[in-house]
Amino acid sequence: MPVIEADAPLVAEDIRQDQRFSPGAVVRELGVVAYAGFPVHDLRGRPIGALVAVDENARTWSAEALASLEDLASACSAEARLQAERERARRVQHAAVRANRRSRFLLSLSEAFAGAQSVNDVDAVIADIGTTGIGARYCGLALIDTDGRGITYTSLAHVEPGFPASFRHARLTDDRPICEVVRTGKPLYYSSDDDLAATFPEVAAHSNRGLGARAFLPVISPSGTAFGIRPSGVVGVVTFVWEREGRNDQDVFALGAALAQYAGDALERAWLLDERRRAATTLQRSMLSRLPQIAHLDLACTYSPATRSDQVGGDWYDAVKLDDEASILMVGDVTGHDMRAAATMGQLRSLLRALAWSHDAAPSELLRLLDKANDGLGLHASGTAVLVRLDRVKRGGGAYEVTWASAGHPPPLVLRQDGSVERLDARSDMMLGVVPTIRRTDHATLLRPGETLLLYTDGLTEQRSSSDDEALSGLEKTLASLADTATAALPITLVRRIIGQEQHDDVAVLAVRVRMAAVPEHRSAPGTARVERKVADDLSDLAPARLWIDDMLETCGVPLAQRRTITLLASEILTNALDHGSAPIAAELDIDPGRVRVGVRDGSPARPQPQDEDVRWFGGRGTQLLERLASRWGVEPFEDDDGAELDDATRGNPRARRQGKTVWFEIDREA
Question: Region annotation Disordered: residue ranges (predicted)?
Fold first, then answer.
């Protein structure tokens, strides 16, 4: 149009005689004769159109008409500029909304990942943000294996339905999208399941046809140190699956990429925190000595650090063997949860250990001396402790006299023979480090064979929603429920039962059980015995029977390594009798200086038989273990008309004789 091309007004009274209009001009073809046009401009002053008035007859345009047309053109320019401003404002607002959404999303990512301290935490955050913030239906996190040859999904809880467990792991050479992302370091997007299957046929059989778009995004480790790779290397892949096809929203993909980036930072931080936590725990454990082997006593302990802390603590335990008849047990908790507390704990523990060994004194006196040394040497540590002395009672049937003193520590517990739990809640003295010259008090009780004394720190009972008494009552109930648990497993089982996964404080637990004493039959030589124990026809009696066997072996001086082997084999044949035999069942021990013989007698004459070439009795392990570990073993049938096992109607009747078998093995004792 001439007006736009010239960017100037164009007025003609008769275009037929005006050379500014070419013969082929549109206005001529439309039959226009008179013409008046004014340009319309945009925000930048560029012509974007024209306001034109025409007439089919020649006409002389008046000044007023031309002025009106010029005003109208200016109004059109103003309206065009206003519309452009509105569109510009709309775009700016849309961009601001997008930027605000992205900022809020990034802020939520930062806050969510800030609390992630483990791989499981990172996996949970990805699932939460991926579904709520990005709109994905399913999410997954896969991490490269430590050997760098494969990649494994950390969890199958958030992946799409039908995803097989066998597909959880892949070699990096496999033809799968997560492997391709690791190899190239580039994200992959697929608008539909068909697009994914066309590119990776191997996954077609395992993908869900009812779902839509998918994204596979690389997770980058900034430094690479945590995973032993180069800086900015790929350590994993985040997978998103949407319900609908064709999701080509670049904003969503950008948010997903941001999530993957934050995940890489969080994973590296979690690894470093875990390394610090392991180092702190190693330092803590290095300051705790191994428990001694004490005749007639079964000791076990555990130290469990807080799950959400990389600091060492002041909890400790120790045991000192004075002689074959006396020993000292101690548990304490120094105030603080830092390196200084750990160092102070190590000094206090060493002081008390030395005092216990060098002073034949009561627990109260040992704690008084410790408090005095704590002040005199300038440690000025504060904390709690309980000190217990065990003295074997002469001609007391294996019982021990327990003398204890407490410096502000939680009360010891005793698991009695009848399954009840007694709280030794005599009044506690003042904690350590307050008044060094304070007088301390001893308390006493008796610990009989088969009974267990439990010492612990307050981390085992500190429950935020419970009072101290309620927490102690809960510990007592849990301890009573574990009456048949082996001593070696008791401390850690208590921690897991009571605290679970969310542990907010360090915990030290020390348990000591008085062993049952072996009663010799017609034997006079030391270290010999011939004993028998009836076993209830119930698997619940398996653990107590196993404990009884270990006690008998220990009191006869069988070394620990051999006791473990014998107890393992005895457990196998006991389990077989309980599973496949019949009552009455009894365990027999015959111990002499040269060998240990263990037999399990039951009322079934059926001999144990291998089920097939590969599966053997005892769950496929029994005979293999016996053949490999026992010096000798066998099965002996028997017939017994013992009146105690028969009623009055059948007693003396040969046909009513009780039949059964004894499965036995022997272990030659070490010289």
Answer: 637-660
